[in-house]
């Protein structure tokens, strides 16, 4: 039964990746319905498989290029079966190589393509790439243009921690009472206290459903400032680890386009002063945005960039940038007042 369930997990992961390639987005409702047929462990496996394959796709495609003559001619489903196989071979230590290859081949219906997937994955398993010898954009599996863009940002020094964070599955933060924690720990859940707030970070899931409400820790901390808080996503550049499909939908022009949308949204805000948090750290959606708002009658005011806690920020004259490990996640915050 477990073996069948894991096979279903791989099939569902493949279907999600195929859907993304054909439609350009992840269908959350369809994913939810598909996952409802799986056991708890198989849900985790399927989620890790499709999200991990998306996170590592730039690197995976580089690896596959070494063994495919014309990858652009392959059907989407075959390319994604290969990607799933490579992800398991390189990044899922709990899956033996023989199982990664066998189960990836089983995802393919046409015999000639099954033979291709089998042969390529065997070569991939036998001829490992030295990841540490690769340039940053490949080692951390980012589009090359994005790494070059981040390198040019004046508010970021060493970009490696940020690139690594973007490749790390997000932590789940919760607010809970001591009695709720004790009850959950009896069911096998493990939590750690956050370094930045009174919330708790989930370390290990237990055997039952977790009925606590997940929070965005940065937003939770910001609301403790006792000022009006407006959160806007913009390009969601800060959320790459949560939404790895953004690696393939973001473009250099996205930031300017989102800046224009943000300006319109902010001009509609009724509050005379407020803390603005943007889920991005692009210059267009932060510095340039604030300069444009300045012309439209807003001014930046000082605020405590530690957010009454232990956070550290890169302060600029127009706001503050936050990045791990000095904050729960990347974002930009400014305090705006209407003149």
From TrEMBL:
The keyword RNA-binding applies. Keywords: RNA-binding. One of its GO terms (molecular function) is RNA binding. Residues 8-125 form the NusB/RsmB/TIM44 domain. InterPro entries: NusB-like_sf, NusB_RsmB_TIM44. One of its GO terms (biological process) is regulation of DNA-templated transcription. This is NusB/RsmB/TIM44 domain-containing protein. The lineage of its organism: Bacteria, Thermotogati, Thermotogota, Thermotogae, Kosmotogales.
């Amino acid at each position: 039964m477990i073996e069948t369930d894991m096979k279903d997990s791989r099939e569902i992961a493949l279907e999600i990746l195929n859907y993304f390639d054909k439609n350009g987005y992840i269908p959350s409702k369809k994913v939810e319905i598909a996952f409802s047929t799986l056991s708890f462990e198989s849900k985790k496996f399927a989620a890790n498989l499709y999200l991990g394959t998306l996170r590592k796709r730039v690197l995976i495609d580089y690896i596959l290029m070494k063994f495919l003559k014309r990858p652009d001619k392959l059907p989407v489903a075959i390319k994604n079966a290969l990607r799933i196989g490579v992800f398991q071979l390189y990044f899922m230590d709990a899956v033996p190589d023989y199982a990664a290859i066998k189960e990836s081949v089983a995802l393919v219906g046409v015999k000639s393509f099954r033979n291709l997937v089998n042969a390529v994955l065997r070569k991939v398993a036998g001829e490992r790439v030295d990841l540490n010898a690769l340039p940053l954009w490949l080692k951390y599996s980012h589009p090359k243009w994005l790494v070059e863009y981040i390198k040019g940002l004046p508010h970021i020094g060493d970009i490696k921690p940020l690139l690594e964070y973007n490749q790390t599955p997000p932590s789940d933060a919760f607010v809970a009472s001591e009695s709720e924690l004790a009850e959950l720990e009896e069911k096998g859940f493990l939590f750690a206290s956050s370094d930045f707030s009174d919330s708790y970070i989930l370390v290990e899931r237990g055997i039952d459903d977790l009925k606590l409400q997940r929070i965005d820790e940065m937003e939770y901390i910001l609301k403790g400032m006792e000022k009006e808080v407006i959160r806007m996503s913009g390009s969601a550049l800060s959320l790459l680890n949560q939404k790895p499909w953004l690696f393939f939908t973001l473009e250099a022009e996205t930031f300017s386009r989102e800046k224009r949308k943000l300006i319109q949204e902010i001009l509609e805000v009724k509050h005379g002063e407020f803390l603005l948090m943007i889920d991005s750290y692009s210059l267009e959606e932060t510095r340039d945005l604030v300069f444009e708002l300045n012309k439209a009658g807003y001014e930046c005011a000082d605020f405590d960039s530690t957010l009454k806690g232990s956070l550290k920020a890169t302060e600029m004259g127009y706001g503050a940038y936050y990045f791990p490990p000095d904050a729960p996640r990347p974002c930009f915050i400014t305090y705006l007042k209407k003149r």
